[in-house]
Please model this.
Amino acid sequence: MRQLHVRVPAAERSSVEAVLEDLEVDYVAPTDDDGVNFFAPVPTAAVSEVLDGLDEADVDPDTYTVVTKGEFAHTGRFSDLQEAYGDETPTISRPELGATIRELRWPRRLYYAGTVLSVLAATCGLLLDQPALVVGAMVIAPQVSAALAAPAAAVDGDWDVFTGSVKQQVLGLCLAILVAAPFALVLRRTGVVPAAVEVTSIELVGVRLAPSLLSTIGATIAGVVGAYGYSTEQSVSLIGVMIAAAIVPAAGGVGLGLAWGEQTYAVGSLLLLAVNVLALNLGAFVTFVLLGYRPPWLFDEWSLGESVPDADRRRVYATILLLLGATVLTGALTASQLSFDHRTNQVVQETMSAPPYADLETTGDYSFPADRAAGRYGPDRRRRRRPRRRHPAPDGPRRHGRGRVPLLSEGRRLRGRRHGAIALLIQVVHEVAPEPGVAARRQCVQFLADRLLDVEVVEQGPELLEGDPLSAG
Model:
């Protein structure tokens, strides 16, 4: 419930009384020499209707109005009023939403400081593959303030807050990347993290290689939950964590990709970050509209041009065009990535169901210790030459690393590294990327390894890839 306090001149007393009586709201109205003070307990869902009624009654918009939380009210008609609004979603009024979002915004210095600390913690958590540390980084992240302020301001027509929030989001994410990249590079160059470590082999990093339909849905849900939580004053303790989960780890992933020279991974993580931010803001905006916060420039008689002050028009239009351009670009790139994923999955399913591979299975898992993996590569990340070893018999198990080399049912062997190993079907690669380019084939191999087979291909046996351009690369 809310306690509504309205102070009006004596000449407007009858207008306020008519609105409150029409809504069956109990009130007291003590008077003094300067005017009349109305005090009324109102259910949360009815505050917007009362304020709209005062506006329609031509009550002075500069009237002194205060809405505070109330704990208990015992009046003649308040119980009936609560029952009347009991089935409605208890959304707070538009002025309350604006005030809540303004209180939610962090001071500029604290916002950027919190962004730096959270992305540093997230980068450490990604490198250590520790979800607890990544979650801790989300807890201290301040991104929820700007992420919800922009859509709420757009709904309210507060373009100054809208442009400021968009600017804060962009600068905060750029700062996060610029901090994460040199921080990760220092860790790599100083030996805190071995230079030979493949960051894409870390599970928490590998899941952020590129945007996917599931990650986009998760970011959209974060925006929906955030908008609903703050507009209904439900439990909001974990909303900030959920919103930061879509932003902070992806920003740290971009920094890791730049520090390790993995341009493809850096671009993929950057695209994931952009898609998540846009999906989060769009989900929050749509939720605000569905909850009844109608943008005046969209549903009322106002146009967008009329709702924007002349002094801010250029800045607002530039911000809107930037968001539209980013949405179209990221949407096209994400659609291309999803199309590639879908096409590759189809080819894999068709190939795996073919008769020659009906009995294909994995016979073991193994991985290399970190010291052995580091010793196989030189400072320039090129593979060191080692004496050629004869391949063992297909059914002769040999210890390699921490486990047994996986064998194919046909007796062909594929050596891999990371979480496990399974046969890689070259026919799939040929169908997905039939051109003879080695780069395209290798991209398909890595996609299959990271997304479908959960392994990273280190080398291919010559008897399996003989005559294929991939083996020459």
